[in-house]
Amino acid sequence: MKTSFLILINLLLISTAFGQKKTVTKLYFYCDPATELSTVSNSGNPIKINRCTLVETTLDSLGLKIFKNKTIYIPLKPGETYYFRRIISSHAGLATATLSACSEEDFWLNGYFSGMGTYRHYSLDRDTGLKLLAEEK
User: Fold this and answer.
1) What is the per-residue pLDDT for 26?
2) Count of beta carbons in the 10 Å neighbourhood of residue 29
3) Cα 135 to Cα 89: distance, rounded to the nearest angstrom
């Protein structure tokens, strides 16, 4: 009886260890006009961001290449969803752009009222790199 119980527990532990999938983190980006985002994981193949872009990743941080020698890292919590928007404002003929985190409601309402345009859905993984899963216009 003890032996069969121990075998059952071992099988349960082994199946749990091998059956775990990587938790996906979702990042939504909104940008008008369109831009490209280069990350450490896909420097040769930038993410094209238009009004609505979803990046699903299993990475624990997203390294953004800002300038030639400057990279910043955004720490990510597995299973969380993040929303970012890029705003361009102009004062006295000078245009400035800012990228900031926003709430889910703010993201979708801004997208709705300005028209979502092209939707892109990417997958970004350390092993497989960047893949475009869907593009709808």
Assistant:
1) 95
2) 23
3) 28
